[in-house]
Amino acid sequence: MMEIKNFSQASRDFRVLATFLNFRSMKSALSIVILLMAYSFSIAQTEPPPLPPKSVLKSDLDSTFTKVEIESEFPGGAKGWMRYLTENFTYPKAAVRKRIQGTVIVQFIVDKEGRVTEAEVIQSVHPLLDKEALRLIQESPKWKPAIQDGRKVKSYKKQPVVFQLI
């Protein structure tokens, strides 16, 4: 993305763009450019952080990673994880009676030994559903830990838990 040094340079750039695109008014060109800049800014905000350099320090390996070379994995992969969630899921009876539905999102860490730790609800629906979603994630068996620079590291995971009455 181009860096704007000063307003007069930006103004000249907009006029050149308007001429190049054959817009009838400067206002149309400016609107298009502002929309493109807003779009590129929103993309830049959602990109994951860059991977650390290959020479990762030992102290860095104590950090919790959001992006790793090899992701942590539940035994049996995605199918095994879905089987675990399905077999261990319990819809709270009080929530059924009150017809409470929604999607709870739980964030957790898979540590270097593969244990699920620090589970927390980051998108709540209702305390009854939140409690069940946390229980489901916290009771998970051990995972295969993430790998960064050839070493086991802690990594973040997010899991939506859907509560839907049929």
Structural write-up:
The protein is an alpha+beta fold and 166 residues long. It has 2 domains: 7-46; 60-163, TonB (TolA/TonB C-terminal domain, 2-Layer Sandwich), CATH 3.30.2420. It is 39% helix and 21% strand. The chain contains 5 helices and 5 strands. It has helices spanning 7-21, 26-46, 77-88, 93-97, 127-138; strands at 64-65, 102-110, 116-123, 146-148, 151-163. Strands 1, 2, 3, 4 and 5 form a 5-stranded mixed sheet that branches. Strand 2 (102-110) and strand 3 (116-123) form a beta hairpin. Helix 1 (7-21) packs across helix 2. It is elongated and about 50 Å long. The N and C termini lie far apart (48 Å).
CATH architecture classification of the largest domain: 2-Layer Sandwich
Cα distance, first to last residue? 48 Å
Estimate the strand proportion: 15-25%
Number of structural units classed as domains: 2
Oligomeric status: single chain
Helix content: 25-40%
**Number of separate helices:** 5
In the CATH hierarchy, what is the superfamily of the largest domain?
TonB
CATH fold name of the largest domain, please?
Answer: TolA/TonB C-terminal domain
Rough outline: elongated
CATH class of the largest domain: Alpha Beta
Number of DSSP strand runs: 5
Structural class category: alpha+beta
Q: Could you give a short account of the major beta sheet? A: 5 strands, mixed
Order of helices and strands: HHEHHEEHEE
Mean pLDDT: 75
- Which residue ranges are poorly predicted, with pLDDT under 50 across at least 5 consecutive positions? 1-48
Radius of gyration: 24 Å
